[in-house]
Structures are given as structure tokens and as C-alpha cells.
Amino acid sequence: MEGSFRTLHPTNTGTHISTTITKLQYFWLGKYLFVKESLRALISGGLIGAIRYFRFINFTLHKERLLNHDDKGVINLFIPPVPSKPFSRIIRSYSDTFVLRTKPVQLHNILIATTGRCPFKCWYCSAAHMSAQDLSIKDLQKIIAILKDWGICIIGFTGGEPLLRTDTDDIIRQYADEFSFIIFTSGYGLSRSRADQLKDSGLFAIAISLDDHDETNNDRARGFSGAYEISLDAIANARRAGLYTVVQSVITKAMIEQNRVGQFLSFIKTIDPDELLLLEPLATGNLLAHDNSVFLTSKQRKLLRDLHDNTVNDHKLPKIHSFAYTEHYSRYGCGAGRQHAYIDTRGNFWPCNFLPISLGNVLKKPSAVYERNLRYFSRPCSTCILMEDRAEIQQLFTGQLPISFEKVQPYLEKRFERIKDSVMPEFYRLMGS
Questions:
Q1: Span(s) in the chain for CATH 3.20.20.70
Q2: Which tens digit of pLDDT belongs to each residue from 138-180?
Q3: CATH code, 84-433
Q4: Which residues contact 198 (CB under 8 A, 6 or more apart)?
Q5: 232 and 221 in contact (C-beta within 8 Å)?
Q6: For residue 245, which phi and psi values (nearest 5 degrees)?
Q7: Can you give the pTM of this predicted structure?
Q8: Dmax of the chain from CA atoms?
Q9: CA dist list (Å): 187 to 197, 207, 269, 327
Q10: Which of 103, 156, 174, 300 could staple 182 via S-S, CB 3.0–4.6 A?
Q11: Angle, CA of 281, 286 and 292, to the nearest 5°
């Protein structure tokens, strides 16, 4: 890794309690749960059930740098820490679906836009062309009750900028035992006291955006002068508060082509978050009608996958989680409607926060939304739906997001027929789905 930079914020500025652990140490932290579920798989599913269970566990932990955070084992921010009630529910759900095969696949991770307001103007913003309104607390309570009934384990608050609201902290406090809560933020408003309050409320993780180690480049990408310092201060405050701290970054073509990714990773290591979430520009929001010039090539996407692999054991680099890795056909494939989904400020249900189509309004017809998601997204897909079908989705766009279910249904029906004989992602093939 070549290049140099000036470190503006010193390392070890406060409490940073995560440590790398082995698989054995991870299992020890969740020993009672893992033993209980393995015996259940053996008793209910026989030898085949036990084999499937251990395949599932081994696949999940493969090429992951495991951490101990607050005396709990962490794989990544999208899997609840163990031991916890949300982790118990998610492993039981996977066991029922893939080991014992007694239930259909269930969603586990839902992002909720609590507000459309945001002081930043990111060039790649996925929330563009959407309502800037707030989701009322009454509607948020109703949505969470629905998600609890659906068996959801992880809830992420996003926006807009979710930290513009403080009343949602009480929601986290109320349901902290039931869900693993994450906040996705620019860092705007994350003072030391606010970070402490969120930790006290029961927030598990916070993902803070930082797109470049160069202040000028970062602020230009974020559309806000001072965004760089806001992010670095927020990361430091989150670490001091003991939150599981994630830096989320959109890796661009320019950064790759200019060979600046190595410098960026080295810089991230100096500010020492628990995890680095690597994203890429996607054809949604501001970029829905854009041409290919800003989107990564398959070769560049492979670089993000390789980074995930290379940093598992290289502790000179940050722990990396990348959708280019987890949603590759060699892992789980596209997670839209299967592993995650999104609800906007008006209650519209999207299969993914980057897939700008609605399956209906969860506040009005939750059962219909659930059934539509089960029908159109129950089959595993080896490639990102947005990347594969971008042209078709662009043709349906008329200036307002999300694209309504009535308008998108013919496309979904055609896609449903088209993917019937497609190749399964490796996880589902291994589990015999």
C-alpha cells in the first residue's frame, strides 16, 4: 500500500473495547445457545439435520474476523451479537428454514427511514426523489409491532439523517431486548452526550459515513463543508461511548483507478472503528437514471471482495464487510426481500433500500405486503437485482420514488418466471434449498 496522509485525529482517544477472538472463543460466548440448537437439529432432523446445522454455522463464520464487543461475540453489524435474544431468534429462524425445513424463508433485517430530512447533499444519495417528511412515532410503533410479528431480528434507523430526531431513542430503549438496533448516519449531531444516551438506550451499532481520507474529496462527495470533521468526531464519540462503531464508505471508480484505496484503508485503521462497511454507487436515488460511467465494473467489484478476504487475518488493516462479498453468488447472492428490506417515511415497503420499487404500504396492508414479498423474492438470486435489471427499472421511473407496486408488478411477474431455473447462490446450494 503506497502513499501517505496526515492523521488529523490521534488513535486510542477513548474506550475501544472490541478485541479479535477465535471461533472457539466465539462459540464459548454463545455456548448454551449453540449446544441447544445443535441438539434440536439432531433430535428433530436426525444426522442429516445435524450435518446441515454445522454446515450452516461453518458457512456463516467462514472468512470473518470475529470480535468480542461488550463480552458478546460479533460476526458483523448485520448479525446480532451472541448471546442476545435477537441472535437466538435469528439462529432459530435459519434452523427452521434451512436445517429442519419447517418454515419458509424469513426476513431478518429491516431498515426504517425515520425522516427524509438531511443537511447533506451526497452525489450518490439513495433517498433522492422521495418524501422529506418524518415518520410519526405512532406509525413507527405500529411498524415495529408488525415487524415483531414477522420475526424480524434487526432494525436499522436511516433517513435522511436519523440523528435529527431524538424521540426515536425511546423506541430503541423500549425494544432493545427484542431487536438489535443500528443507526446509519452521516454523524451529524452525534455529540459525546448523544452517543452516551444511545448506548444507554440499548443501541448496538452505529454506522457513520466517511468516503475519503482526503478532507476536500470527502466534503465534495458529501455535499457539505465540514462533513469530514463531523464524521471523525462522531466516530470518536461512538467509540468512547462503547457503541459497536462502523465506518460506511462508498468506494468510487476514481478511488480505485487512482490507487487510493490502500491509503484509505490505512487511514481507517488509524481511527480504529470496529468495522468498515464498503459500499459502491448504485442506480437508485440520484443515480437511478445515470449511465454506466459511475458504476463499478465486475473487476473493480472483485477488488472489494478480495479486500474482505485479505483483511480477515491481516490485523494491520480494518475489519471489512462488503456487500460485493456477501451478495456474490459464492456466498448468499442478492439479499433483497430475503435477508433485508426497507420501509420509507410513508410506510412503503421496498425489498431493498437500493431497489426503488414498492410492494405496498405496510401501514395499510401488512399481510398483502408480506405475501407479495414471499412470492416475488422467495427464490434466491445469484446477482444483485438492481444491477441485473437496471434498464427495466429505469424505464418504469417517472420522477417519484418508490415505483408503485401496480406499475412494477408486470416486471416482477416476468422476473419471477425468468429466474426459476437460475443458478443458486452457494449458501442455498450447500443447504440443499
A1: 84-433
A2: 999 999 999 999 999 999 999 999 999 999 999 999 999 999 9
A3: 3.20.20.70
A4: 169, 172, 183, 206, 241, 243
A5: no
A6: -105, 125
A7: 0.94
A8: 60
A9: 15, 8, 18, 27
A10: 156
A11: 50
